Amino acid sequence: MPRRLGQHVFGTCACVGPDFYAERGRRNGMFEELHRKMNRFWNADRTLSETDPEFIGIFSEFAYDTVVNEPGANDEKLDDHARCMAIIAAIIGSQGMDAFEMMLPISYHSGVTSVELKEIVYEATPLIGFAHTLPYLKRINDYLNVENVELPLAPQSAIGKQNRAKEGASLHRTLFGESADSDEEFRKMGAGHIDSWIRGDYLGAYFTRNGLSLQEREMIAFCLLMAQPDCANELRGHIMANLRVGNTAHFLIAVASQCLPYIGYPRAVNAVKTIAEVTHNDKQTV
């Protein structure tokens, strides 16, 4: 059973009493330590609940009570561990370093391991680019040093470099279907090498690694893409892949709902609409 919230990320909110959170915050264990550890993130001498009490009251009650306790925003597979990984991935996808620094310690102390944190950032690299993931990798390393975690971590590569193309192609068929064996559009444009890289690098080098299950990797890909603009086709493809590996539409809607406070309504709503579109099309083709 998750621990109760007690106090939220920005300090105690005057508009909501402790009994309210004790009763309503059953699912909020992942945020329990945020007040103690990250409350003074923006200002060394004053908390956000002191500088911006109305805003923090509105946001905190919504994000850490309404969303977390909404039945439609929960799924039996979405425990605190999975919720933390989803939010971390969505924050990285939306390039929210300040929010990432707030979520990093609570994710770690909610059971997201150092290997899992690193694997989320590694997986993000082919989706959002090294230029965007490097600051997050450096921040994780700084945090793990403070936590006295010995670096480098144990290697997580599961296959040899010579097998990446073959294993990536096999995984591509598993995730996207037999019809995805080749992308003629790429080849017609003279960009067949990029199609090969998707299999050998993106899938072969990253998705075959240990540290995260295939279901977790697909959930993370969904969160990374959902949080970015102009990724509709890629998001659609990874929603289909999520369904193929056993992450249900209800689970994905719950994930999008939990990430909504961090990425905003438009992107979360677009993700939910895309889930509905994909599942509707799947039913029509059965």
Descriptive key words:
66% helix; 286 residues; mainly alpha; 15 helices; disordered N terminus
Brief description of this entry?
The chain is mostly helical.
Classification by helices and strands = mainly alpha
Q: Label the overall shape.
A: globular
Mean pLDDT: 86
Order of helices and strands: HHHHHHHHHHHHHHH
InterPro entries: 4CMD/NDH-1_regulator, AhpD-like, CMD-like
Protein name: Carboxymuconolactone decarboxylase
Pfam families: CMD
Organism: Bifidobacterium animalis subsp. animalis MCC 0483
Q: Would you kindly provide a written description of the structure presented here, covering whatever features stand out?
A:
- The protein is mainly alpha-helical and 286 residues long.
- Among the domains are: 1-69, no CATH class; 157-208, no CATH class.
- Helices cover 66% and strands 0% of the residues.
- The protein is built from 15 helices and no strands.
- It has helices spanning 18-24, 34-38, 48-51, 53-69, 80-93, 97-109, 114-128, 130-146, 164-176, 184-188, 192-207, 214-226, 232-244, 249-263, 265-285.
- Helix 5 (80-93) crosses helix 12 (214-226), helix 7 (114-128) crosses helix 12 and helix 9 (164-176) crosses helix 11.
- 38% of the residues are buried.
